[in-house]
Q: What sequence folds into this?
């Protein structure tokens, strides 16, 4: 049973001008989900025009009105949580349990959080002897949001909520692999009272649809989450046009495990960090650095933890590892497993496609894979694989662990596992990443700065950082009298 999924422009679904469509398939079964309208530059131009026309009225609404609409959108998604979770699981191949417990609840939380954040927002005030300065925050205008396939609604709402809160109008381009929940959300937004044209969606491919959005003269800013190479291209297109730009890019994150840890807790944390969402989270701890005295004991328990994860039907609530997002992506991940072998790695578990019954035998499944015996600076150990593949590396000193962790082009996140408080602070401060977790992973407070350094991105999202990005600060200086 397949359906047609349209663009969303001016508060209504609409086919692409050229009437072209592309297939959206379930990667776990190969089944067709929908025929999706394929936007090209002329459709992007229509969406931008709709957003531009809606801007004057939307930017004039009060903060209270906008915050109330964000809350109503959260309520609307919550009322259809199961429908959203099923759609997300079908598009991505991720376990339904994950979509129900993480993806969709977090999308709801994003709207509620930014409704609260904008209600309580404050701006600067600077007193001089004979004048006062205060800061106004103005919307940027029409903003383009470009998002990846791994956490489709979670990441789209992480941008949409603060951008709307600050009075911008939007054109979103979700990954063409995962278009469904964005469109479902557009319907909810209409029901929640969001005026037509404030939020628009163009489905389509990066080169013909994403690129047209980034290069459009009426788009003032781009918030992009995706791969590092794509981010470089987006930056090259946006920079000469002086667009404001936020880039959340790839990662190769280390989990540093010191010998004084509670072994079971650290193993459990490292397994979760390595394999959540089939290893397709930018924050995944895809290399685990283990202090030598506990290396063997850790490795044994880690392998047991990985083997205990149920691989299979994403619709089964017991499944821990679902399908990768596509057969193409699985081929890319498998090429890294082949590379690991060439580079001298030992596959300790996994490395193959699991045998699953029809229709899952047509899915893009891959066993969770653990490799050791690799040099910490080889390609497998330093490049982003973005799949269920984790490499293990022993270390002898704190300095060596920090050097290995910092020895990649990426700098997104790390986690440090130790019971030594001083070491936890000392090591965390020396890691070249935007975020460090101590004795945990992916514990999120939506107020804190989120983002990476080096090839992992430019800028920060979260709380006041997002409100700052999606607005222009204007200083007003008022002379109070006197002779200056
Ligand atoms: P891509 O970079 O391939 O795509 C991201 C988005 O950009 C997609 O919507 C894509 O469209 C679009 N796009 C592609 N080319 C262009 C272009 N020339 N101009 C404008 N837009 C374009 O990333 P993936 O979707 O493969 O996602 C995985 C990557 O995202 C990983 O590297 C991961 O680390 C990163 N990521 C980073 C996060 C962070 O917060 N730092 C969070 C989550 C993921 P299309 O789908 O058609 O190619």
A:
């Amino acid at each position: 049973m397949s359906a047609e999924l349209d663009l969303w422009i001016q508060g209504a679904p609409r086919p692409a001008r050229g009437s072209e469509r592309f297939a959206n398939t379930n990667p776990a079964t190969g089944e067709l989900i929908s025929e999706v309208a394929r936007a090209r530059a002329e459709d992007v131009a229509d969406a931008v025009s709709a957003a531009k026309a809606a801007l004057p009225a939307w930017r004039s609404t009060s903060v209270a009105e906008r915050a109330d609409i964000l809350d109503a959108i959260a309520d609307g998604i919550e009322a259809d949580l199961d429908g959203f979770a099923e759609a997300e699981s079908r598009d991505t191949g991720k376990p339904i349990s994950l979509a129900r417990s993480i993806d969709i609840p977090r999308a709801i939380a994003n709207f509620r959080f930014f409704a609260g954040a904008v209600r309580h927002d404050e701006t600067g005030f600077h007193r001089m002897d004979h004048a006062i300065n205060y800061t106004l925050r103005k919307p940027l205008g029409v903003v383009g949001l470009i998002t990846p396939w791994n956490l489709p609604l979670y990441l789209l709402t992480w941008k949409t909520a603060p951008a709307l809160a600050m009075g911008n109008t939007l054109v979103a381009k979700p990954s063409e692999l995962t278009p469904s929940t964005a469109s479902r959300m557009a319907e909810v937004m209409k029901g929640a009272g969001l005026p037509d044209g404030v939020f628009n969606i163009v489905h389509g491919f990066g080169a013909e649809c994403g690129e047209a959005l980034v290069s459009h003269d009426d788009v003032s800013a781009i918030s992009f989450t995706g791969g590092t190479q794509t981010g470089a291209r987006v930056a090259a297109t946006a920079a000469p046009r002086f667009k404001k730009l936020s880039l959340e890019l790839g990662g190769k994150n280390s989990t540093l495990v010191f010998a004084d840890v509670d072994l079971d807790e650290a193993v459990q944390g490292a397994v979760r960090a390595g394999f959540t969402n089939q290893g397709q989270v930018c924050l995944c701890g895809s290399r685990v650095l283990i202090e030598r005295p506990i290396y063997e004991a850790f490795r044994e328990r880690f392998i047991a933890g990985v083997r205990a994860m149920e691989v299979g039907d994403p619709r089964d609530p017991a499944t821990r590892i679902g399908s990768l997002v596509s057969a193409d992506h699985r081929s890319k991940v498998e090429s890294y497993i082949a590379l690991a072998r060439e580079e001298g790695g030992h596959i300790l578990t996994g490395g193959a496609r699991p045998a699953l019954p029809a229709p899952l035998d047509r899915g893009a499944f891959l066993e969770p894979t653990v490799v050791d015996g690799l040099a910490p600076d080889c390609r497998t150990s330093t490049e982003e694989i973005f799949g269920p593949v984790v490499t293990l590396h022993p270390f002898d000193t704190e300095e060596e662990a920090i050097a290995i962790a910092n020895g990649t082009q990426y700098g997104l996140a790390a986690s440090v596992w130790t019971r030594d408080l001083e070491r936890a602070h000392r090591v965390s401060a020396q890691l070249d990443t935007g975020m460090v977790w101590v004795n945990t992973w992916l514990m999120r407070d939506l107020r804190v700065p989120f983002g990476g350094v080096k090839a992992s991105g430019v800028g920060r999202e979260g709380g006041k950082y997002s409100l700052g990005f999606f607005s222009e600060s204007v200083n007003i200086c008022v002379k109070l009298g006197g002779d200056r």
In short: The two ends are 75 Å apart (CA to CA).
